[in-house]
C-alpha cells in the first residue's frame, strides 16, 4: 500500500487540490451582492445574500450540507486520525530484534524511544481535538441552517 501511495503522490495531491477548489470555490456562485443606495458611504452599503437556487433546489441539502461537510471537515479529520495512529503504531511496535538493534542494549535509549512514543500519542490526541474544536462551530451553524432555513435567510432590508 505504501508503494502505491508513493507512486501516486502527485495524483493524490492534485485530487486534494481539485476537491478543495470544488468544495470552497463554489461558494462564490451561492451569493449575490445587494447594493443599498440609502446606505451609500457606510459599511452596510453592500451586503450579500444567498441566490434563489441555493434553497430552492437539492443543491443546498446534497452539496452544501453533506458533500461540503464531509470533504472539508470529516474526511480530513479521519485521514489525520488514521495517519497519526499509523505514526504512533510505528513508534510503539518493535520486535525484540529491532529494539536490540536500535538501543544496542542500552536501557536509556529504550526509555527515550518510549518517551517519544508517548509524546506522539499526546500529539495525536491534541491535533485531533484541536481540529474538531476548530470545526465544531462550522458543523453546528451548518446543521442549524439545514434545520431552520428561515433563520438563515432573514436579512435586514
From TrEMBL:
The chain crosses the membrane at residues 65-85, 123-144. Gene3D superfamilies: Rhodopsin 7-helix transmembrane proteins. It comes from the Eukaryota. Keywords: Membrane, Transmembrane, Transmembrane helix. The keyword Glycosyltransferase does not apply. This is G-protein coupled receptors family 1 profile domain-containing protein. It comes from Caenorhabditis japonica.
Amino acid at each position: 500500500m505504501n508503494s502505491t501511495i508513493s507512486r501516486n503522490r502527485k495524483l493524490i495531491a492534485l485530487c486534494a487540490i481539485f476537491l478543495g477548489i470544488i468544495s470552497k470555490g463554489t461558494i462564490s456562485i451561492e451569493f449575490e451582492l445587494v447594493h443599498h443606495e440609502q446606505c451609500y458611504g457606510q459599511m452596510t452599503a453592500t451586503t450579500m445574500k444567498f441566490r434563489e437556487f441555493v434553497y430552492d433546489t437539492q443543491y443546498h441539502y446534497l452539496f452544501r450540507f453533506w458533500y461540503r461537510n464531509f470533504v472539508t471537515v470529516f474526511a480530513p479529520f479521519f485521514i489525520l486520525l488514521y495517519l497519526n495512529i499509523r505514526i504512533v503504531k510505528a513508534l510503539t511496535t518493535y520486535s525484540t530484534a529491532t529494539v536490540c538493534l536500535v538501543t544496542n542494549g542500552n536501557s536509556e535509549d529504550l526509555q527515550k524511544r518510549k518517551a517519544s512514543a508517548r509524546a506522539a500519542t499526546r500529539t495525536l490526541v491534541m491535533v485531533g481535538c484541536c481540529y474538531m474544536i476548530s470545526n465544531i462551530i462550522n458543523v453546528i451553524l451548518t446543521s442549524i441552517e439545514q434545520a431552520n432555513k428561515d433563520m438563515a435567510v432573514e436579512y435586514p432590508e
